[in-house]
Design a protein that fits this description.
CATH architecture of the largest domain: 2-Layer Sandwich
Helix content: 40-55%
Bound molecules: 5'-O-[(R)-(carboxyoxy)(hydroxy)phosphoryl]adenosine, zinc ion
CATH topology of the largest domain: Nucleotidyltransferase, domain 5
CATH class of the largest domain: Alpha Beta
Order of helices and strands: EEEHHEHEHEEEHHHHEHEHHH
Structural class: alpha/beta
Shape: globular
Number of strands: 10
Radius of gyration: 20 Å
CATH superfamily of the largest domain: ATPase, nucleotide binding domain
Strand content: 15-25%
Largest sheet: 5 strands, mixed
Length: 357
């Protein structure tokens, strides 16, 4: 039995979790900063970093207490090393280093995207996983289609060339005067709208596995701004209602925008699964909480679709502990020289080990 303490602080959630053998969650504590960032309409990096510093000790203590264990029961500390916000990553990594050094525990740096992939290992299932699997990772910072050919073996088939899917949700929500985070707000609003009221662009459709969402965001902006040259919202600010056309139907725009996002995500992921002979199709990351995406993927996928339970879609440390467990099994170890990697791409564990040598 191997018990891993996972720590996550790459963005705006401070998380700590205790997971046994990469699949059994003993505890999973998440301190969300959503309320702090809502006033800015997005994550404010300096504020995020400070909030992590304030929360991390209590969150780790709570995770150990909830699991009914002490640090003496922990076999290794796994922590998100990247990608993410530098100031936020530093808090988790330094805290993990301190714990590992103080207790003589192995330290395992985990890729945040790999963490999202391993959230699917925490899902109860009655049949074993048969590779290859195709996973769509969609969050506020990422939109990637990943081919998984074994534990820790990844090929990134495609990713976004501009905005991430969740980022597009957040930006469009701001244009529509909806609160942060935009994903759940748009999903709720879209339920009362028509997905065919507007025809928004499906960028790069039929063309490889890369995504582009910035043209879609601009198309929404054009649809909602007044026809005459009115004042534009400054960068980082939402439109005020006086800057929006008064004849727009917000639920219709939300539903039509969501249909465009879901269409491209589903098209490309289903094609990737078919072309690579995937046995299953997984969706992970904050946007995987979206019911419209889940339903469309399930309807159009030729193979079973698996999604994490809601609380494992958004950032959490249980998925980091699960990914850390498999890195630990592979013999992957970091030491006190481990540094944050804010732009760390998702690479296979064996390549990460070679790079580290
Ligand atoms: O994975 P996550 O918690 O953090 C990152 O790694 O970025 O994802 C957060 C993102 C936000 O952009 C949020 O708007 C989006 O996930 N999101 C959703 C939904 N719930 C969260 N997007 C669409 N529909 C949802 N229900
Ligand atoms: Zn994430």
């Amino acid at each position: 039995m191997t018990t891993i303490l996972g720590i996550e602080s790459s963005c705006d959630e401070t998380g700590a979790a205790v997971v046994v053998d990469g699949h059994t969650i003993l505890s999973n504590v998440v301190a969300s900063q959503i309320d702090l960032h809502a006033q800015y309409g997005g994550v404010f990096p300096e504020v995020a970093s400070r909030a992590h510093i304030e929360a991390i000790s209590a969150v780790v203590r709570q995770a150990l207490d909830d699991a009914g264990v002490t640090l003496g029961d922990i076999d290794a500390v796994a922590v998100t090393r990247g990608p993410g916000l530098a100031g936020s990553l530093l808090v988790g990594v330094n805290y993990a280093k301190g714990l590992a050094l103080g207790r003589g525990l192995p330290l395992v740096g985990v890729n945040h995207l790999e963490g999202h992939v391993y959230s699917l290992w925490l899902v109860e299932r009655d049949t074993p996983i048969v590779f290859p699997v195709v996973c769509l990772i969609v969050s506020g910072g990422h939109s990637e289609i990943v081919l998984i050919t074994g534990h820790g073996e990844y090929t990134v088939l495609g990713s976004t060339i501009d905005d991430a899917a969740g980022e597009a949700y957040d930006k469009v929500a701001r244009l529509l005067g909806l609160p942060y985070p935009g994903g759940p707000a748009i999903e709720r609003t879209a339920r009362d709208g028509s997905a065919t009221a507007y025809h928004f662009p499906r960028a790069l459709s039929g063309d490889g596995y890369n995504f582009s969402f910035s043209g879609l965001k601009t198309a929404v902006l054009r649809a909602v701004q007044p026809p005459h040259e009115g004042p534009r919202p400054a960068k980082g600010e939402g439109m005020t209602s006086s800057q929006r056309r008064d004849d727009i139907n917000v639920p219709d725009v939300a539903a039509s925008f969501q249909a465009a996002v879901v269409d491209v995500l589903v098209d490309k992921t289903v094609r990737a699964a078919q072309e690579h002979g995937a046995t299953e199709l997984w969706i992970a990351g904050g946007v995987s909480a979206n019911q419209a995406l889940r339903a469309a993927m399930t309807e159009r996928s030729p193979v079973p679709v698996r999604v994490p339970p809601m609380k494992l879609c958004v950032d959490n440390a249980a998925m980091i502990a699960a990914a850390g467990y498999f890195r630990y099994l592979h013999g992957y170890r970091d030491d006190q020289a481990m540094d944050i990697l804010p732009m760390w791409p998702l690479v296979s564990i064996k390549d990460a080990m070679t790079q580290a040598e």
